[in-house]
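S.,

Sequence below, as promised.
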Amino acid sequence: MNEIFQQRIESVRAGKDLTHAQISAKRSLREQLEKDMAEFAQKGGKVHELATGFSHFKDGLIPATAVKPVINEQDRLDREKAIEERNQEIRKHKAALKQERRLQAKQKHDAQIKEQVVILGRFVSKFPSKQDFKRLAEMTGYQTRHLRDAAKGHTKLGCEKWDVVKKVLKNFKVGESA
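The prediction came back faster than expected:
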C-alpha cells in the first residue's frame, strides 16, 4: 500500500493524474515487454537501434498513407524528377485547354459582334430617324450611344440584353411612340 501511495505522489509531482489501475496496467505492460525481450534475445535475436530522425517523418511517426520509404538519395531524386515531369505535362495540358477556351470565347465574341453589326446595321438603314433609335434604346435599357457603337462593331452588348434587343427589333414599329 505504501508503494502505491508513493507512486501516486510521484505521478502528481510529474504533473500526471494517473489512477492505480493505470499505474498497474503500465507496470504489467513493462513486465510483459521485458519477458518478450528476454525470450527474443534467447532465440538469438538482436536489437538494432535506429538514429533519431531515421524515418524522415515528424516525431518519427510514419503516416498510414506513406508509400514505400526512400531507400537512398538517388531513388529520391528519381522520384522527384518523375513527379516534376508529370507536373510539367499537366501544366502543358492545362495551358492548351486554357488557350482553347480563350480561342472559343474570342470566336463567340467575334460572331456576336458580326451579328450585331448585321442586325443593327439593317435597323439603322431602315429607320434612320433618331427618334426611332432613341425609342429602341429606351425599350432595351441601353443608351443610344451604346447601340450606335454596337451597330458599328465597336462594342459587344451583353448576351442576355442582346437577346432582348433582337426580340424588340422583330416587333419594332416605325414612328410609334411608347
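The helical segments are 2-13, 20-42, 73-126, 130-140, 144-152, 159-170.

Coffee later?
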